[in-house]
Prior knowledge:
The protein has one domain.
Amino acid sequence: MLLYFRLFVGQLPPVPKIQVHRVLNSMDAGRRLAKRAIAAQAIATLVLALALLLLGPAHALGALIGGGGLALGNAAMAWLGLRSDAPAAGFAMGQLLIGLLVKWVLVVLVLAVGVLILNLPGPAVLAGLLVSMVVFFAVGSRVRH
């Protein structure tokens, strides 16, 4: 049967070689990147709060709440999403999605407390959030070899 099939089809195609895909970034590299990003967010938020202190303490506190809320959310996301060493892909993705959900719930809660309960100026809170977000993406976009 095999001889008949080979004569009918011709030469069989070669068996493809198995390729091993290496992981580009380890979980440890992700944790280090998260620590750098959160530290940079904290520093940028403090600098903005010092600058807004010229407008008053409420503006400075608003910037601290906005930027600090995002830094706190990113810390929670990193802790939830990057805590195990080598999870399966589906489990790792689930951890990151849960971390992302917790991050944004924390951010919304902190911003709501700042604006609605503490009556801090909205533009200052949003400025802190924006500066923290820009710094987070700037640190994350740097490629290290």
